[in-house]
Design a protein that fits this description.
The protein starts with a strand and ends in a 9-residue tail after the last helix. By secondary structure, it is α/β, with parallel strands linked by helices.
């Protein structure tokens, strides 16, 4: 079996990391993988360990030329199936390229935002099957009219191994010029509006009076960076909040946090939540999209309503106040990751979808290529 993966992300964030995990897992199972990605993308170099990589221009939704570039690649490499992992135009142009070449196509959907009926009707016939990374996203698609048989939930995975370590929290704090007992809260997400950074900054006005030495570390990059820096200055938070940028070796530092905050307005599942749980870090997150599948309220974290700044402050104070609760939730989170979110389970789930799409006996009438 030969699979062409299309990933349009330029940085090795959550979605691209999932593609890397999948390529590695498929290689162990004897499945050949190819990867099409943007020129200079963060995934390109590590992915070469697991398959052939083709870097090419990917300029987004208006890049109709991507159809031709992908069509040439498909014609030359002759994959059995195309698996599209991202949007940014790759979903539509990649689907069209596969259709023109008569090759089955699977789409992974990682976001839970609803789409207009005309867009659903126009886009989803391009795909033989749609894989969602959470049941919450799958329910959105079903509500939009996709047939049940055309969608499957295969949850994102976390490679737990790098997080199974003893973290030297005192050394980490010393590297930041902090005392060994300074409470540290972090958020790991792209700096885009739907991740809810503004809610966290607002909630700090209820948290800092009780925890005046708290340090908040904002990990990630994105278009909101300058806006967030200005908001931190305007709200008088510069003493307590630091912009940390993108961290190449996140597993080395994530477990040094006391709490992870993720007050997103919308979220497919949240890979950083899986990573935090793997590192035994308790979480405060919003009850949005697929987040309740990654954060079980009262088990490995606390959930609040999206946008509820007051509830966010209360939940953060509750965890910062109680070291025993943090430890219990952290241990429960790591156990959950080992039990339910393994890379092997994610690989087997996607491989099952591939087999169903490629087998007319199994897939039946839902496929445009295998009408059964």
């Amino acid at each position: 079996m030969k699979i062409l993966h299309i990933e349009a992300g330029r940085h090795l964030y959550g979605g691209a990391t999932q593609v890397l995990y999948l390529m590695e897992g498929l290689a162990r199972r004897g499945v050949e993988s190819l990867l099409a990605c943007p020129t200079g993308a963060g995934i390109a170099t590590p992915a070469r360990a697991f398959g052939k990589v083709f870097e090419m221009p990917m300029k987004g939704d208006v890049d109709i030329g991507l159809v031709l570039r992908l069509r040439r690649l498909i014609a030359a490499e002759k994959p059995d199936l195309v698996h599209i992992h991202s949007r940014r135009g790759a979903d539509v142009w990649g689907g069209l390229a596969a259709l023109l070449c008569g090759v089955p196509c699977v789409l992974s959907r990682r976001v839970d935002n609803p789409e207009s009926p005309w867009l659903v009707a126009a886009r989803y016939p391009l795909y033989d099957h749609v894989v969602t990374i959470s049941e919450g996203i799958r329910q959105v698609l079903l509500a939009e009219g996709l047939p049940d048989a055309k969608t499957s939930c295969v949850r994102s995975a976390v490679n737990v191994r790098p997080y199974l370590r003893d973290y030297d929290k005192a050394a980490f704090r010393a590297s930041l010029g902090l005392t060994h007992d300074t409470p540290v809260l972090g958020t790991v997400a792209q700096l885009i509006p739907r991740k809810g950074h503004r809610h966290l900054l607002s909630a700090l006005h209820d948290v800092l009076p009780r925890h005046p030495d708290l340090q908040v570390l904002i990990f990630g990059r994105g278009p909101m960076e300058n806006e967030l820096r200005q908001a931190i200055a305007d709200q008088g938070l510069a003493r307590n909040v630091r912009m940390m940028g993108f961290v190449d070796d996140l597993p080395a530092v994530l477990g040094c946090l006391d709490v992870l905050a993720h007050p997103a307005d919308m979220e497919g599942l949240g890979v950083s939540l899986l990573q935090a749980s793997a590192a035994r870090v308790p979480i405060v997150a919003s009850r949005a999209g697929g987040i309740p599948e990654a954060v079980r309220d009262g088990e490995n974290g606390l959930l609040i309503a999206p946008g509820d700044v007051q509830a966010l402050g209360v939940a953060l104070n509750r965890l910062l106040d109680d070291a025993t609760l943090r430890q219990r939730m952290g241990e429960a989170g790591q156990a959950m990751m080992l039990r339910e979110f393994s890379v092997d389970a994610m690989c087997e789930g996607n491989l099952s979808v591939y087999r169903s799409v490629l087998s007319p006996q199994l897939y039946g009438a839902g496929s445009r290529h295998h009408p059964g």
